[in-house]
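Late entry, evening session. Most of the bench is empty. Finally got around to the prediction I had been postponing all week. Sequence below, unchanged from the version circulated by S.P.
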Amino acid sequence: MNTPPVASRSMEKGAIPSAQNNPWKLGTPWIWLLGAGLSVLVLMLFWLVGLLFLRGTLAFWPGDLWALRMQDGTVYLGEIRKEEPVPGRPGVSRLQVRIGNRDVYGVDFIWVARDRVVQMARLQGAVFIERRQWGPFIGFVAAVRTPEGVVSGQRAFEAFMRHLEPAHRRYEAILALEKGDIGDVNYAMEQIRLRRARAERLGQREVIARLEETLHHLEARYRELAERARRLRQEDARYTVELRTIEGRSRTLPISEVIRAYRPNDLDMAGKMGVYAARLWEFFSSEPRESNTEGGVFPAIFGTVMMTLLMSVFVVPFGVMAALYMHEYAQRSWILSAVRIAVNNLAGVPSIVFGIFGLGFFVYLLGGHIDRLLYPERLPTPTFGTGGILWASLTLALLVAPVVIVATEEALAAVPQSLREASLSLGATKWQTIWRIVLPGASPGILTGMILAVARGAGEVAPLMLVGVVKLAPELPFDHNPPFFHLERKFMHLGFHIYDVGFQSPNVEAATPMVFATALLLVLVVLILNLTAIQIRNRLRRRYRFG
């Protein structure tokens, strides 16, 4: 009689094999380790987004104004931003106070030791005034001067608030005249000068004469508009406000230079919410000021979205065609394998290398040739031979092209071969099969590649610094002058705006809230773009579901 194996005898006795009792062989510790790592990543993500949300949204909340009397008799008035321990002095803290009035004191923020403060009080009637230049003024309204007379004392603030809205309308009228009508005339005059230079180069005397006559009328129109703007400014200069600091120093400025004024210590919750909403809207809709530390980021929002959309328009057709050729048409050979290896390696190239390539190839080579062929009358001033939103979009398209190509190839491979064969058996050509069967079925995967490309391209900064992004763009790449989309213009970008404000600003304390707010906005812009693409992908996935 044969002796049964040891394992069989163990099973007969009800014993469990040792491998099932060993958690390391079952992989239980690794599962827990992976779960812990995922939990840490999720917590870090929520912590980062929560920090950006908290610091970014609170940056616009109007804080109370405190009067601080020091031991030496000095008095400060301002917002208390934060309190922290004094380095090297255990048990002693210090306060960061935003005193504003940079044209008076030379600084916006000061640090005061808490143990040197003998009295703290919330002053009723203290005014926080946001100006177009020199940052905020914190103090009191001493007098208002208008053509009707001077109002001072207790009624000065009420008179100032009555004249503030009309002053805003005057300022907007002057701005519309200078940037609108006068800007259009300047643009038309510049086009006439360029056409005249071209006509002189070609020897077209009749054309030159007609252009000279048109230019003469435009110059007359310019002088008329400039005179109107001068009169509006003279009228605006008659409305001024005298501001006074807590220690008695005064500053006088036109009322139109004030953006917003309020008494934070006198506001209830509804009033503070109104100021908060106004500041938040200004952040989204206006241009930056004070070295980008105040105002809004609308040009950066516009530039980021427009560049990302242009990048997607360039990279998706190119990436899809490249992947389609490699997967559907190219013969399997070592050359195709080498191309795939090269595409995969391109995904690991540092982004600054793409920026250098874009500067040399797109800007200097292509842009320089375009200027010599199409815009010779503008030389030596470059048109396309310098950084612009077109070259930035093409550079980032090359940067994210490997992502789109790889994702598209995977999507094409996921389309069942039986669908191709069925289409071909019914008499369709290969291109008809690809156009009507393969590409619609692979479209969700193609959009996945586009989502990944948008997520990476929208946050890149290093290449943009070489091919078109600037600290402050005086003109948007889009306006009402033909050809409407000016792809040669430089632009602003939220990512570069964060870098510039956070690391290049001369006023670091004032820039810190703007850094958090802009970073939060960049995350939201990328999220909105991705969610839009994901929604489209899900609809296509439901429409072209296989099986």
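Two things to note before I forget:
The mean pLDDT is 88.
DSSP finds 17 helices and 13 strands in the chain.
Will write this up properly tomorrow.
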